[in-house]
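ingest -> validate -> predict -> emit
validate: passed (alphabet ok, no gaps, 267 aa)
predict: started
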Amino acid sequence: MTLFDWVIPIRVVDLIEIGLVAYVLYKLYQLMRGTIAVQIFAGIIALYIVQVLVTAADMTILKALFSSISEVFVLAVIILFQPEIRRLLLLLGLNPLVRRFMRSPAQQVRIEEIVLAVQDMSTRKIGALIAFERSIGLRSYIETGAQLGAQISRDLLVTIFYSQNPLHDGAVIIRDTQIEAARCILPISTSMRLSSKLGLRHRAAVGLTELTDAFVIVVSEETGKISIASNGVLKSDISLSLLDEYILEALAPSLAGNASTNPPATA
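emit:
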């Protein structure tokens, strides 16, 4: 018998499985870190080691005891780790790949109309400011503009922001499936973190997200570049593919504190 006879064959699927298990364990560790779940998990591991030793030593009474415990073990784990399991499922729900497959046809059409409108305005360098209402109402800002109550469409959004249209100044506010109002006045951010080169549209986008949980898209009239603002933070030069994901996440139900919609700050 040679050394090669003792080598365990490893398939590509085995490497994928190892990677998936490692990823899941790492995510579980991130979720449990700093909570009492870590101590509970350590206790479960200790019990498992004891069970292995008891089985190896063939201790009849203890084996019977651990066998009875194992019958309710899975249920006990679900109960003990219910908060962590819930958070893990929420994170999975926020995954872009999962959300892409879970989109409803109506939501898909709505997002496509917005992205196509932004693409058109970006190409033609039509300045735009589009705010999405989330859990905090934007009625006080809606009332500053011209109320529309119209269905979301690419042509309507582009028409509103066309420079010869009297509604092009200010922001469009979207609530659910409707364009609620146009020419809305938003608060201007005075944050020193923002670049001095930014115009009023970008500062208004940040200003609204400093006071509410709104999500805002900005198209620069000078460069045609697309920016987004959320939680008082601005990110510039967004690609259309990323914009699609940001919009989907912004329009989804508020999960995990909306943390993943928070873009990195610009200098």
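The longest helix spans residues 12-32.
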